[in-house]
Amino acid sequence: DTAVSQTPKYLVTQMGNDKSIKCEQNLGHDTMYWYKQDSKKFLKIMFSYNNKELIINETVPNRFSPKSPDKAHLNLHINSLELGDSAVYFCASSLGRTSGKIQYFGPGTRLLVL
Amino acid sequence: DQQVKQNSPSLSVQEGRISILNCDYTNSMFDYFLWYKKYPAEGPTFLISISSIKDKNEDGRFTVFLNKSAKHLSLHIVPSQPGDSAVYFCAASVDDKIIFGKGTRLHILP
Lengths: 114, 110
Description:
- The complex is a heterodimer of chains A (about 110) and B (about 110).
- Chain A has about 110 residues and is an all-beta fold.
- Chain A has strands spanning about 5, 10-15, 20-25, 30-35, 45-50, 55, 65-70, 75-80, 85-95, 105, 110-114.
- In chain A, the strands form two sheets. In chain A, strands 2, 4, 5, 6, 9, 10 and 11 form a seven-stranded mixed β-sheet that branches. A four-stranded antiparallel β-sheet of chain A has the order 1-3-8-7, with no helix packed on it.
- Chain A is globular.
- Chain B has strands spanning about 5, 10-15, 20-25, 30-40, 45-50, 55-60, 60-65, 70-75, 85-95, 95-100, 105-110.
- In chain B, strands 2, 4, 5, 9, 10 and 11 form a six-stranded mixed β-sheet that branches.
- In chain B, a hairpin with a 4-residue loop joins strand 7 (about 60-65) and strand 8 (about 70-75).
- At the A-B interface, strand 5 and strand 10 of A face strand 4, strand 5, strand 9 and strand 10 of B.
């Protein structure tokens, strides 16, 4: 009965590979987010979807493509992985769009690119 | 360009005393400020928030103070407990934009 779940929890892969991270929320929220926490510990928003519509798309390489098949899911696909993509990726969700809304985070996916 | 800054990477406080975590921001358009707490290997969890039209919000042991003229907010935890040892992130938002600070690691000493 986890509120926001992510799979996989750990991902180790070679440079150049393509990988996907899945996120699901069972809170009935209408907005979902992807964040990247890099080695410097900054937590930076990458994308946000509201009712399956993209509302935030920060300066992220187009190798990263989010997909929201429905309001409860927001997946992240990464093409041609690079060393600099190594980070912890967090999914989050909220009821309503961003400002002032409490976000519920998943446990994170630790991606290591070798 | 960091719009939300937490200048203290870490802070140690004796159990039972007050913990004060600080956060500065540069964008006067931010209308909500939130604090999140994060334990190792877990995602951040919401702690407390404040709207820009207020200067104080209290929830149990946690109080957030906002000084708009100084573009500064602080989180007070009193009394501090061992379970408060974690990383605390300050976040500021407006419209569809949200910016997190780098976090402050709080150690509660026995």
